[in-house]
Amino acid sequence: MITAYTDGGARGNPGPAGYGVHVVDEDGATLAELVGPLGHATNNVAEYSGLIAALRWALAQGQPRLLVRMDSELVIKQMRGEYKVKHAGLQALHREATALIAKLERVTFEHVRREQNAVADRLSNAAMDVVEGKEPTPPDAPAPTEPLAPARIAIPRPARPASARVAPLPTTPGRFSFDDD
Description:
alpha/beta
């Protein structure tokens, strides 16, 4: 199973927003780093956008099982059904994430502390830098002993109406599992 560390943020909330995703294999080798500048948005929209980017990447790469680690308790609890998704903008993103999960064999969510999510945090800050017109902070160079060079993938989220993001909710039970620290 591969692991996607995801993070999103907005400076000013709402403000210049972006997400970052760091995907690693079972040995911890970097498979991809995704950076998504979002324009003006909230941190919760950015967090969901990071999750969706990770799910899309897993589908595109033919990865049926995914462990998602993120420091957003809100997104995790909403995906678990512990919290209702009240905000209309988040409802559409929640439905999109749920529809993507239904296409995968298994998605496991795990809440991690912010310090355990440092690479995804750095990537989301690089995305916010792009939105602000700054030169993004260069990524850390891979260690010389690292067997797989990271794939640097920048995927900007295309602008589209909210109605285009809405997908029907899957009715298949048992697709979700959650771990929390």
